[in-house]
Amino acid sequence: MRYLLLIYTNEQQDAQRNEEQQQANMGAYFNFTNEVREAGVMLGGEALHPTTAATTVRVRNGQTTSTDGPFAETKEQLGGYYLLDCENLDEAIKWAAKIPGARDGSIEIRPLWEFEG
């Protein structure tokens, strides 16, 4: 059985870390990543930009709307994800509008951080 482990943190508190704390935190993530890779249980994982970079797409009555931010209503829960390679946010919004969940829920679009090495 596959599981998506979504990491929810307080972005404001994270942003207040000094450089040494940031490096220690990232080191802990790299260590964990290496551990799950070596255990053979890692299928994939990515770091997300902050919620300020998110876009939410809804389709109502055939109309597609997009808003900045992850403005999901509290009655909505994350049920899965697609990882797409799009040219830009506009293309991502077009694809998101085609996902069935956009009709009665919302699709959050979040750019991925690109780490080198």
Overall description:
With 117 residues, the chain is of the alpha+beta class. The chain folds into two domains: 10-45; 51-109, no CATH class. 30% of the residues lie in helices and 13% in strands. It contains three helices and three strands; from the N terminus they run H-H-E-E-H-E. The protein has helices at residues 11-15, 19-38, 89-98, and strands spanning 55-60, 63-68, 107-109. It has a three-stranded antiparallel beta sheet with strand order 2-1-3, covered by helices on one side. Strand 1 (55-60) and strand 2 (63-68) form a beta hairpin. The radius of gyration is 16 Å and the shape is globular. The two termini are 30 Å apart.
Summarize the model shown.
The chain is α+β, with helices and mostly antiparallel strands.
Provide keyphrases for this structure.
alpha+beta
Give helix and strand order, one letter per element, not per position: HHEEHE
Report the average pLDDT across residues: 81
E-strand count: 3
Structural class: alpha+beta
User: What is the total number of structural domains?
Assistant: 2
Write the layout of secondary structure elements.
Layout: H1 11-15, H2 19-38, E1 55-60, E2 63-68, H3 89-98, E3 107-109
Antiparallel strand pairs: 1-2, 1-3
